[in-house]
Amino acid sequence: TLQQILLGLYFPSS
Amino acid sequence: LEARLEQANLLKKVVDAIKDLVQDCNFDCNDSGIALQAMDNSHVALVSMMLKSESFSPFRCDRNIALGINLTSLQKVLRCANSEDILTLKAEDAPDVVNLVFESADSDRLSEYDIKLMDIDQEHLGIPETEYAANISMPSAEFQKICRDLMALSESVAIECTKEGVKFSCNGDIGSGSVTLRSHTNVDKPENNVEIDLTEPVALTFSLKYLVNFCKASGLSGQVKLCLSNEVPLLVEYGLASNSYLRFYLAPKIGD
Hints:
By secondary structure, chain A is mainly α. Chain A has one helix and no strands. In chain A, 21% of the residues are buried.
């Protein structure tokens, strides 16, 4: 969903 | 690791608050304290806990270790503690178990439990420093009541913050509802204060199911902080003593 995409964009894997 | 917490209850409340969102997670221990970061199964909410070393007395962590713990198991063991018990967490180098010792402050009872650790390959996310457009502090019980009340009508809530105040509103099959809060200072009971710090108006919509879940942390702090910026995940923060915290992030609902 867009929500999931947004969370992934905002908190990139480090 | 050897970390002594005056109140076993603190960790119990943290685990009770997050257990329905995340199941297995790593407790990352280093000399600054014990941290946990985990996404919920649906990948729209993120939990971030930090128990700073200052929250423990004493605190010793000679090498960085990740303790992979199933929260249901941890909850079972923490339930064995009495509410006033002191908790000491211990783990060896490359541990198989984490050891929990509960001490009664006023009797000589000592109880000891080991929880088997798991190997958890968890994705670690970078949480950027963010200047939010709106920072709202309010009583945590008030936020909990608003979320629960509005959930009776709808699945989602719109949070609008303007210089007039913060408005929580919803629209559902049976009708609609809203609660508006304005800045408010109570000198005698500062935990009842509502503070709104706004740099620009914000309007976002969130799933109430998650917010109600976050509110399980209300017992940890009299106040909750909500930080919002347009098109950025909401931050819901419960501050703990010694700058420790429990934070939840939730991605907003976006139009179809």
